[in-house]
Amino acid sequence: MQAGEIAGNVAPQIWVPYIAAASGAAGGGAFVVPYNMKLVSAQLNWGASITGTATNYFTISFFNRVAGAGTVQWATAIAYSSGGVTATKATPVTLTLSSTAADLLFAQNDVLSVEITTTGTGLTCPGGTVTLNATYR
C-alpha cells in the first residue's frame, strides 16, 4: 500500500519558530503536501502564554504558497495586537478556516506556510505548532 492510498484523517504539523521581541525578525514554518488533501480543521498550540499589546505585536498568518508565490489564506490570520487577544500555553487555539471551499483543497507539492510578521518592536513569539486535520483526496 502506498501513502496516497491511505483512507481517513492525517495530522501533519507545521512548526512555528520562537522569535524574540525587538528582533524585527519575521519567520515561519512550512509543510509540503505529499498527496492531494482536503483540510478539515486546524489547531495552534503555543509553547508559552501570550498577551497581546497595542503597539508592538506580531501577526501569525496561514498561506498556501503554491510554488512559493501563492497568496491563498487557508485560515484567518491572528494579530496579537491588543490585551484582549491572548493565548494560553499548551491550550489549543482552533483556527478559523477559509469559508471558500477551494482554499481548503491542497494539491501534491503545495507549500502550506505559517508566517510571523512583527509590528513596531514586536512581541515575543514563543513558538509552537500548527496541527492540521486533513483527509487524502
Structure description:
There is one protein chain. By secondary structure, the protein is mainly beta. The protein is built from no helices and twelve strands. The protein has strands at residues 9-10, 13-16, 27-32, 37-46, 50-51, 57-64, 72-79, 86-87, 93-94, 105-106, 111-119, 128-136. Strands 1, 2, 4, 9, 10 and 12 form a six-stranded antiparallel beta sheet that branches. The protein has a four-stranded antiparallel beta sheet with strand order 3-11-6-7, with no helix packed on it. Strands 5-8 form a two-stranded antiparallel sheet. Strand 6 and strand 7 form a beta hairpin.
Explain the layout of strands and helices:
Elements: E1 9-10, E2 13-16, E3 27-32, E4 37-46, E5 50-51, E6 57-64, E7 72-79, E8 86-87, E9 93-94, E10 105-106, E11 111-119, E12 128-136
Antiparallel strand pairs: 1-12, 2-12, 3-11, 4-9, 4-10, 4-12, 5-8, 6-7, 6-11
Q: What class would the helix/strand composition place it in?
A: mainly beta
- Averaged pLDDT: 90
Helical amount among residues, as a percent range? under 10%
- What is the rounded distance between the termini? 16 Å
Reading off the top of the CATH hierarchy, the class is best stated as: Mainly Beta
Largest sheet: 6 strands, antiparallel
Write down the CATH topology: Jelly Rolls
Instruction: Tell the overall outline.
Output: elongated
CATH architecture: Sandwich
Instruction: Please indicate the count of domains.
Output: 1
Q: Radius of gyration from the CA trace?
A: 15 Å
Q: Could you tell me the number of beta strands?
A: 12
Strand composition percent:
over 45%
